[in-house]
Amino acid sequence: MANGREVAIVTGGSRGIGAATSLLLAKAGYLVVVNYVSNKPAAEKIAAQIMHDGGRAAAVQGDVANEDSIVQLFNAADRLGTLKTLVNNAGVVDVKARVDEMSAERLARMFTINIMGSFLCAREAVKRMSTRHGGSGGAIVNMSSAAATLGAPGQYVDYAASKGAIDTFTIGLAREVAREGIRVNAIRAGIIDTEIHASGGEPERAAQLRGQIPMQREGTAQEVAETIIWLASGKASYVTGACLSVSGGRSV
Fold first, then answer.
1. Mean pLDDT across the stretch 125-133?
2. Contact status, residue 114 vs residue 163, Cβ threshold 8 Å
């Protein structure tokens, strides 16, 4: 349970897993910064829902592909309270393609948002949370994917590679700041019923892949969010450097 003016930032917090996570963090007592890059109405809707339910929230614009924008996002959070949780949720996929069909522009966009954005947001969080910098600790939860271990051949190897980088980043950062009061973990999400599939040109992808999932169904944003909340909470106080699969048993 968060107390006082403890702040949680959820990047990409206006839809899907980010929105579900924002709502649960607010119920846990955090003042939630619902980050968005362009869809202000969607972010404001989530913030309004939180406040209607008695919580505290602010919709704050910030592009994780831009360093200055990231710094401004965290500075805005500083004005609201003390940062205790960062959920590195913002990310993108692209249309299905083989590696020999991918452009440099596609790769740059993918890696800038999915990898560099997570690095820079974590950098700003560590500056605020670490006891080395005068902070009082906190938790970082990175959004990875089952694709990190599956590779996504013939679909989007670039996305899978970006999430593999997130796994390595999570393990390394967790060990780097373990003595400074910060826990760092990742969620390897499997096939989840969110809008991200439509953004990659396959709105029916989740339903189409049910047969490959041992549980024979796609997951929900709420199920992933519940796991994120646990990792961010004191109930996971001895968990750091973990890449936790939330995939209905799918690993191959």
1. 98
2. yes
As a whole number of angstroms, the longest Cα–Cα distance in the chain is 52
Alpha helix (H) residue ranges in 79-156: 104-111, 117-129, 147-150
CATH number of 6-246: 3.40.50.720
User: What number of other Cβ atoms are within 10 A of residue 203's Cβ?
Assistant: 11
The string of pLDDT tens digits covering residues 45-104 is 999 999 999 999 999 999 999 999 999 999 999 999 999 999 999 999 999 999 999 999
What mean pLDDT do residues 138-167 have?
Answer: 96
Residues tagged active-site: 159
Give yes or no for a contact between 170 and 228, defined as CB atoms under 8 angstroms apart: no
Give, in order, the Cα–Cα distances in Å from 187 to each of 4, 40, 146, 202: 27, 26, 9, 22
Angle at 110 between CA 84 and CA 108, to 5 degrees: 120
As a whole number of angstroms, the distance between CA 249 and CA 252 comes to: 9
60 phi/psi in degrees, rounded to 5: -130, 125
* Element housing 72 (H / E): helix 67-78
- pLDDT reading at 252 higher than 70: no
How many Å apart are CA 140 and CA 144, to the nearest integer?
13
In this structure, the chain runs to a length of 252
